[in-house]
TrEMBL record:
This is Histidine kinase. GO terms for molecular function: cyclic-guanylate-specific phosphodiesterase activity; kinase activity. It holds the Pfam family PAS_9. Residues 89-141, 210-262 form the PAC domain. It comes from Sulfurovum lithotrophicum. SUPFAM superfamilies: EAL domain-like (SSF141868), Nucleotide cyclase (SSF55073), PYP-like sensor domain (PAS domain) (SSF55785). The lineage of its organism: Bacteria, Pseudomonadati, Campylobacterota, Epsilonproteobacteria, Campylobacterales. Signal peptide: none annotated.
Length: 697
């Protein structure tokens, strides 16, 4: 029977053993492979952050804490050892610490076999090698990085003989490691530059580092430029043990510098030229304009500035698309460029706006001659794909130094003159004059007044009756907005709608017209004065608005207005824009019972296939085709074609701008019996409409 002293001594020995194991980061495991029991020393559990009693001494404890992928590897290796009757088993694997991180252990064990050769027991140790493993992985990764880096990393002894040579060095210098290791680093320098190498090594030893751009050579003798640096290698005692060299190839960089210089010139060109037309852009234009001012100050020869804007170019973009529009702009630029003199400067400011600086003017009349030439060349037919297009331009001209002596003012005045040309009918030119300053100021004041016009109830609606020429009965009214200006009197749309579009007020105006007209017409329906439709012009911006459908439904409900009483007129040029979304919105309106009419038909560039897909019920012949019939053969042919088109598409048709018996008779004879124009009535006030309706009842 064991004495208490003996037991106490054994406990102390066990304690010392465990302490020694903990100090050495080693623990014991004893696996009875027959009875499937496992002894785990407390030091093993402590290594993983557990107290002895927290983990049972079972096979499951190791399996629970071992990294899943490592269990497969360890057990596979153990089976191979047992099959080959090996006595010593060694492996590395990971165990999970109580706080969740993984530690690496080195397992060493003795496998014990019975007389029949079966493994019955395995006793061994687990040693924590996490720090060593992480350091090993770190060194391994660093070695891989150095080996795989594309730049050359070379170690030398203090005499310059090569000791290591990475893959980047092989690629850069074309030497294999077995060809170069042991040779002096100077072999990488051309014969006549070895003094550069010796100077670098000397500076390295003096300062501890050296870096410079220098010429080296490959195995083939091909030269290369590199950024070469030397640094001293030191041990833990700060004793110098060698040299490390880093070489970065800059040969391609030198070539790239030439390319970059060329690209810089290209970018400079792009920064000063329009990408579409290759003409000088706004930046270069102002530079040239300033040059012209300075040159004129020296030479005392005046110059003229032309501001050219294409007329109704937006219609081409909206109806045919921006691709066709871009080709029109390129063709326009080419035509103007071929018209002006070589010493003149043509620039594209933006969109369809061009400028010309005409130097050495001589006489203002010379500017008139050039303006007329430009207008004539712009009017020539333009053939793009299957389209024959006709464009025109409006030109404003300012003169230096008569009108202004600085670039900004010259451009502003030419722009003002251009707007005056547009007001005078387009396809013409105007010189800036002092009174045009008043015109420009007045235009700005108009913009401000227009913003206040709705709130001040200055807008009003006139209605133009639509008549069936066979029965002389009214079939509808078109609502037309007017502005009762406080100082200028009654203004028509052509005076302010352009301003409304510029300022974005067109949507508010269209909304006001819609609600006001629907309220009035609903009242006339209630009084049995009118049983027909209200025709409303809507802009593309209004139709595209996020809340347009809600606004229509709200107005219908607010004024008890039946959808069948309403017809929305959309300009042909606008309806060609945003086909998919446009068709979807028009289909919703049509499904509500609202009529859809294409206004100004014949002035845009309709796609017949698109026209067929649109949920429309009426075409409205533009008045520009009516005004010269029956005297103009071409207009008569166009009107007949539009009527035939409407008939083939089973669409209703109406003509606007009818003023004479001859026009009316021609239309009725050719199948267009619905008419709108001065022949029956000018646009009239709501009070006059009441009398008109009573009369025609």
């Amino acid at each position: 029977m064991m004495t208490s002293g003996k037991i106490e001594m054994d406990e102390r020995l066990k304690e010392r053993f465990e302490l020694a194991l903990c100090g050495s980061k080693t623990s014991i495991l004893d696996w009875d492979m027959v009875n499937h029991t496992l002894y785990i020393s407390p030091s093993w559990k402590e290594m993983l952050g557990y107290r002895d009693k927290e983990l049972p001494n079972t096979e499951g404890t190791w399996k629970k804490l071992a990294y899943p992928g490592d269990i497969v590897t360890v057990m596979k290796s153990l089976k191979e050892h047992i099959r080959e009757h090996r006595k010593v088993f060694e492996n590395n694997h990971r165990l999970q610490h109580k706080d969740g991180h993984w530690i690496w252990v080195l397992g060493r064990a003795r496998i014990i076999y019975d007389k029949e050769g079966d493994a019955i027991r395995m006793v061994g140790t687990h040693t924590d090698i996490t720090e060593e493993k992480e350091l090993q992985l770190k060194y391994f990764q660093q070695a891989q990085i150095l080996e795989q880096i594309h730049d050359a990393v070379i170690s030398l002894d203090m005499n310059g003989f090569i000791r290591s040579w990475n893959k980047g060095s092989e690629i850069l210098f074309e030497y294999r490691a077995d060809e170069i290791i042991g040779k002096n680093f100077s072999v990488l320098f051309p014969d006549n530059t070895t003094d550069t190498y010796e100077k670098g090594i000397s500076e390295l030893k003096e300062n501890g580092e050296y870096k410079a751009e220098m010429l080296l050579q490959k195995k083939s003798g091909e030269p290369l430029y590199a950024v070469l640096s030397f640094s001293l290698l030191k041990d833990e005692n700060e004793e110098t043990t060698g040299i490390v060299s880093y070489a970065h190839d800059i040969t391609e960089q030198k070539k790239a510098e030439a390319v970059l210089l060329e690209q810089k010139n290209i970018l400079r060109y792009q920064a000063h030229h329009d990408a579409l037309t290759r003409l000088p852009n706004r930046v270069l234009f102002f530079d040239r304009l300033e040059q012209s001012i300075r040159k004129t100050e020296r030479s005392k020869k005046d110059f003229a500035l032309f501001f050219i804007d294409l007329d109704k170019f937006k219609h081409i973009n909206d109806s045919l698309g921006h691709s066709i529009g871009d080709r029109v702009l390129r063709a326009t630029a080419k035509r103007i460029e071929e018209t002006i003199r070589q010493e003149d400067t043509l620039a594209r400011l933006s969109g369809d706006e061009f400028t010309v600086i005409m130097e050495d003017l001589g006489y203002p009349e010379n500017a008139s001659v050039l303006a007329e030439k430009i207008l004539l060349v712009l009017q020539k037919p333009m053939y793009i794909d299957e389209y024959t297009l006709y464009i025109s331009g409006s030109i404003g001209i300012s003169l230096y130094p008569q009108d202004a002596m600085d670039a900004e003012s010259l451009l502003k005045y030419a722009d003002t003159a251009m707007y005056k040309a547009k007001e005078n009918g387009r396809n013409t030119f105007e010189f800036y004059a002092s009174e045009m300053t008043e015109y420009a100021l007045e235009r700005m004041a108009m913009k401000t007044s227009l913003k206040e016009a709705i709130g001040k109830e200055e807008l009003c609606i006139h209605y133009q009756p639509q008549i069936d020429a066979r029965t002389e009965k009214i079939i509808g009214l078109e609502a037309l907005v007017r502005w009762q200006h406080p100082t200028r009197g009654l203004l028509y749309p052509e005076v302010f709608i352009g301003l409304a579009e510029e300022t974005g007020l067109i949507v508010d105006i269209d909304r006001w017209v819609m609600r006001t007209a629907m309220k009035q017409v609903s009242a006339w329906h209630g009084e049995a004065l009118l049983s027909d439709i209200l025709a409303l012009n809507i802009s593309i911006k209004q139709l595209e608005g996020h809340h347009f459908m809600e606004e229509i439904e709200r107005a219908l409900n607010d004024f008890a207005f039946k959808p069948a009483w309403l017809e929305l007129e959309i300009a042909e040029g606008q309806v060609m824009k945003n086909h998919t979304e446009m068709i979807t919105r028009l289909e919703k309106l049509s499904a509500m019972g609202i009529g859809i009419s294409i206004d100004d038909f014949g002035t845009g560039y309709s796609s017949l296939s698109l026209l067929k897909r649109l949920p429309i019920n009426r075409l409205k012949i533009d008045k520009s085709f009516i005004m010269d019939i029956p005297g103009d053969e071409e207009d008569m042919a166009i009107v007949k074609a539009i009527i035939a088109l409407a008939d083939s598409l089973k669409l209703d048709i109406i003509a606007e701008g009818v003023e004479t018996d001859a026009q009316k008779d021609f239309l009725v004879k050719n199948g267009c019996t619905k008419i709108q124009g001065f022949y029956y009535s000018r646009p009239i006030t709501s009070e006059q409409v009441r009398y008109f309706l009573q009369k025609h009842q």
